[in-house]
Amino acid sequence: MSTATKGRRFEHEIRELFRQAGFSVIRGAGSKGEMLQEKVDLVATKAPKASRFKVLLTVVGVQCKVKRA
User: Fold this and answer.
1) Do residues 4 and 66 make contact, with C-beta atoms less than 8 angstroms apart?
2) Contact in structure between 42 and 19 (CB atoms under 8 Å)
3) Which among 53, 41, 54, 39 has a CA at the least distance from the CA of 11?
């Protein structure tokens, strides 16, 4: 199995963990995009239940790495 295949599989596993925790997740295939001057593989967002006084949005940029065999 190639490193790219292992990396993609790992990204899908991490994406599923974030989804199970209530996040919306976008996967940037190829890791070519940048967020805050860092390359990210996944961007996860979660908006808490709105209250009368404030709404905060949680944004997480995730970079997934696998070791070469």
Assistant:
1) no
2) no
3) 41
C-beta separation of 40 from 59 below 8 A: no
Segment (H or E) for 62: strand 58-62
Q: From first to last of the 69 residues of the chain, give the pLDDT tens digit.
A: 788 888 889 999 999 999 999 999 998 876 554 555 667 888 999 887 777 777 778 888 888 888 776
CA distance readout (Å), 24 to 2, 14, 33, 61, 67: 28, 12, 18, 12, 27
Please provide residue 28's backbone torsions phi and psi, each rounded to the nearest 5 degrees.
-95, 90
